[in-house]
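A further point concerns the way the authors explain their paired sequence and structure data. Each protein is reduced to its one-letter sequence and a matching series of backbone shape codes. An entry of this sort, consisting of the sequence and the corresponding backbone structure tokens, reads as follows:
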Amino acid sequence: MFYALIWFVVFSLLALWSLAAWAFHSIAAWAVENAGVLAGSPVPAQALRVPDWFAPWIPPELTLAFTSALSALTPAIESLLEWVPALAGGLSVAVWVFWAIGCALLVILAVTLSGVVAMLRRRASVRTRPLIAA
């Protein structure tokens, strides 16, 4: 019974792990594909401003410093965004290698837990055997 429970839990975790890897890969691939579009569209630094609900909590000097730093970093950010679509192939490989490592660790966990259950069952059966006098 314990073996079935262990393997059921591990297979459920494998399904969730696979779903999470697939979802992360899909979202990351979509973001990478659209990064080139973001690089091509000029977004003025003034369009990126502090939300109205957050403005009372930030000193105006900090807001001004953030805006000036953002406008200074805009060319660097745009050049990085132009390189991002080239990384899409490497992203797929990295996600699936990470997925395979996670699957291997889950299977190792299941095998280890099954071994622990087998060891505990052997110990329990040795303790419950009556001693036979020779």
